[in-house]
Known about the structure:
There is one protein chain. The protein is of the alpha+beta class. The chain has two domains: 9-81, Glutaredoxin, CATH 3.40.30; 93-220, Glutathione S-transferase Yfyf (Class Pi), Chain A, domain 2, CATH 1.20.1050. It is built from eleven helices and four strands, in the order βαβαββααααααααα. A four-stranded mixed β-sheet has the order 2-1-3-4. The longest helix has 24 residues, at 93-116. The model has no long low-confidence stretch (mean pLDDT 93). Pfam families: GST_C, GST_N. Belongs to the GST superfamily. One of its GO terms (molecular function) is glutathione transferase activity.
Amino acid sequence: MPAIEDSGVVVLGWWVSMFTTRVRIALAEKGISYEYLEEDIPNKSPLLLKHNPIYKKVPVLIHKGKPICESLIIVQYIHETWKEGYPLLPSDPYLKSQAAFWADYIDKHIYQVVKLTWDSKGEEMQKRVEEFLGYLKVLERELGEKPYFNGESFGFVDMALICYYSHIIAFGKIGNFSVEKDTPKLFAWATQCLKRESVSKTLADPNKIYELLIEIRKKNGLED
């Protein structure tokens, strides 16, 4: 009997991980069937450790027994492997390079600030919020009046950012800011993205993300 990871397309993920969400959105956009295996992150499975021995992190896409790690790399792999159907990246080399630039910007800046909500409060938290809103406003300027970052079509940069949306909403409750009020263009963009089934059926419930963040902050002594 073949091993489960040899059965076609398998995703190792965690419901909290925005990077897992990113990969699942890409697969949904391509209409690719896959088996999803939820990881218990404090007790990582032998399958995860086998297929991502360097970072030991989710997500991992296993295709025909071969692992692909790191979500942006996985999305590019999906785009190049399943060429039929919805394109995830522009065909023009320059536009592709710009999409890669902004996806990298998102993971360098948005992720780092969201992560810091776990262990900051008071003035430090306010500083983090101001820094975070600054990054979001840079993205707003890049979006401009377009419905999506790529123009008229949902694409690579949209997938890179929308996977953070539930975490951003949860962060807003903790940091006392509003995406709708503080970054209205991004709010309109997110509302447009959420009309896509690939997004609405994949994003985690922001209330559950918020509850988890509060639990983590309590353990860190930042909440009563």
